Amino acid sequence: MSDDEKNALFSAPSAIELDKIYNGWKNRDLTPTDYNTIQENEILNGSFKLKMISFKVNGIKEYGALLIPKTDSLIPVRMYIGGFGLNVTTNSVNLILDNSSKSNPFILAIPALRGQSLEVKINGTLYTTPNSAGDHCDAFDGATDDVLAYLNLIQQTETLADVNRTSVRGGSRGCTVALLAGIRDKRIKRVVGVAGPTNMLELTSANENDPTYQCQFLSSYKNNQTGLEATRNRMIASSPLYFADHLPLTQLHMGLQDKIVPISQGYDLQQKIIDTGRSSLFQLFTYDKTHTDIATNNLDLSERIETFLEAL
User: Fold this and answer.
1) CA distance linking residue 272 with residue 243, whole number of Å
2) Which domains, ranges and CATH numbers included, belong to the chain?
3) Which of 306, 176, 145 lies closest to 254, judged by CA?
4) Local confidence pLDDT in tens for the 312 residues of the chain
5) Secondary structure class of 69 (helix, strand, coil)
């Protein structure tokens, strides 16, 4: 790739480009169809119901899990978004439920996302789904479509779900998608991100030969399957930094020793939010941790997140 080509591909986005992407999001049809419950189980003597479900959005068949407490009241929705690995097509979640889990009830929603399946282990029992259809490497903008379509489905099918009190939490790729979902949908009132990229345009430019970035953004361009404008749009639309003025209340947790997502990604988002006069809506917490151990034995992180989400 020539220097001129790189400059054209990775230069900072213009206001026109940003407006086009933001307005384009509003016009996407994320209506879920073909809803089906593929498995339903009672958990903890009927205190919770686990539903493994399928649906379609834009013809793509996808899967998800819903953990619903027994209650007669409207309750908030917490969405949990998994990370990304080039050769990892399963999102794995391990949950421990006991009687204390029944206080401050909420619906936990875990989408598999396109190209991935779910493995949800609850108190030692494993529940799984098949692989969702779609491109595994459409891991940010497309995955955000999946999250919002899933929230639309929850609004349509779960009568106890107060979707206007939705929070979204994710780590690594899931952090980025959580931020993008909060930017795009006003039903989402709180976002928690852990160790996630905020500027995929910048990171792709710095890692253009890395197989993960190739898969997510550059392979189709280099193979002449996608043009320069569409490739730029995909990277920009995967970068919450450029749309930070639309974020709701947000917590971001970053590792100072993270070599995969540098701490500068967190600082840049913080500065952008300060520049837009929205600093009261944003908290950045840093830890002397790496990308892989940021949540390990980190009581401060878990307590900050739970206090933040419980207030919704």
Assistant:
1) 9
2) 3-310 (3.40.50.1820)
3) 176
4) 778 889 999 999 999 999 999 999 999 999 999 999 999 999 999 999 999 999 999 999 999 999 999 999 999 999 999 999 999 999 999 999 987 777 889 999 999 999 999 999 999 999 999 999 999 999 999 999 999 999 999 999 999 999 999 999 999 999 999 999 999 999 999 999 999 999 999 999 999 999 999 999 999 999 999 999 999 999 999 999 999 999 999 999 999 999 999 999 999 999 999 999 999 999 999 999 999 999 999 999 999 999 999 999
5) strand
